[in-house]
Amino acid sequence: MSERRVPDWLPRAGVAVALCGLVVWSFAQRWTVLAGSPFPLGVDGYFYPVQLRSLLETGHLQYAASPLPFWVLAPFAAATDPIVGTKLGAACLGALLALPAYAVGARLGRSQGAGLVTAALATCSAGSAYLTIEFVKNSIGITVAMTALWLVLRALEVPSRTRIAGALGGIVAAMLAHKMAAGLVIAIAIPASLAELAGRSWLRGRRLLYALGCAGLLAMIVIVLGLVAPRRFLSPDDAHLLGELWTTAPSWSLPVLDSGRGGLRLGDEPLAALVLALLAAIALVVERQLPRATRSRIQPASRSVQVTSWAVVGLGLVIGLPWLAVDDPQGLGMRLRIASFVPMALCAASVLRVVLRAVAPSVAGAICVMIALAATVHVPGSRTEGLVPTHPALVTAVQALADQIPNGDTVVVPERHIAFMVAWYTRAKISLRPEPVPIPERWRLVPLAWIGMGSPLDQALLEVRANPQLPRPIGLHPRHPNGLVLVPEVTWQYVLTRLPADARAYFAAWPTI
After folding, report:
1. How far apart are CA 177 and CA 159, in angstroms?
2. What is the pTM of this model?
3. What is the dihedral of CA 118, 263, 138, 437, to 10 degrees?
4. How far apart are CA 187 and CA 152, in angstroms?
5. What's the CA gap between 447 and 216, in Å, rounded?
6. Fewest C-beta in 10 Å: which of 18, 301, 323, 419?
7. Boundaries of every domain in the chain
8. What residue spans of 263-415 are helical by DSSP H?
């Protein structure tokens, strides 16, 4: 009796069902957290509704930013409202990371099983969930970057006009989505493309000149876009971030954020990325030493795949260095650490590509399915770690501000979370720094957490209310006179003169948090 042969479509159908289930599962987890509060979550939570409201009402963003995330969130906001739309779109687009992660992982691992493991590790990671809650643009940017990387690898695998156009479109989308997404794709796509072209002996004579010319033109376009719109695209102004990327005081526990207040760990994913990067480096070296007979059991990796694998290994090693500066919540070091799930997942695919050569294809597939299931059911790290909730009392205080700001004046706020909340509820102009705002149009809005309970500034703001010659500070918070207080600029300057020298210097510098 002849052995029954499994239909070719069955494994593909199984992977498709698994990916759909993974997307639905991840969406449900993200949405459960986001829907737990009627208010936006995260430090920049109100930034996205403000931007979407402006986009729907005027057709453009209120503040300069990479536009693609807001374009893709706009339909969700139009169908619901800017707050719900942001949450719904963030959960959906974050969960959809499973699809491009699978596509890239399958190419790096040369198997559907490796792609499934990559998708599970990336999508169910604590870092990916944190991006959905805290940095929605970055979350969407990672999904776009992974899609662009797949399109590039696909075009290098079988070049055609359609695939090359798709790859270029993916790179443009990454540039429009987020600066980190653009940097990630460009850093991997250029060396992978050059390696593939060199391997096919295309970089010779005129073709070499054409390639160099195209690379120079691309670099010039990136630089010009950065100079014209530095808030939207990678620009020379971002070079200082590299200088601030390192510290002389190493943190061997590899936290995502080490702010001195407990920090942020996200399931120790930077450590996992470092370990998998080291294993992937060993696997890539071993792969080159394997005899051709052993290599033939799994389709050999192309030059572009090998270079991409090494680039991802390098990213994982950099992220895992203990000298990475992660004390600034807005710094590049923290952003890289949050995204450590990307090299973690992709390095796993490279490891599987080599390790699974030693077993039969059916066994290799079963191993990958078990790993993917384990990653889906339980990945270390809380899905709510680092969550910054919005307190109802703070919302009430900001809503009370609506009739207090003269038309055309600007509210200077030292805290981003409150600043964008003010913009949402009052539509007033906001600024984090006082210098750009003319003094007659300047109001200070300060929370008690910034003032300090019982501090000299707290006492001075209470005492100045008894001075009939100065405009009174306006207490907005329902629980404390200075819980959230609006201070006219002339009163603020007077209050500073009543402080001790050290406190006066500190608050006059207007430290932002």
Report:
1. 25
2. 0.91
3. 180
4. 12
5. 49
6. 323
7. 9-377, 392-508
8. 269-289, 292-295, 303-319, 332-338, 341-355, 361-377, 392-399
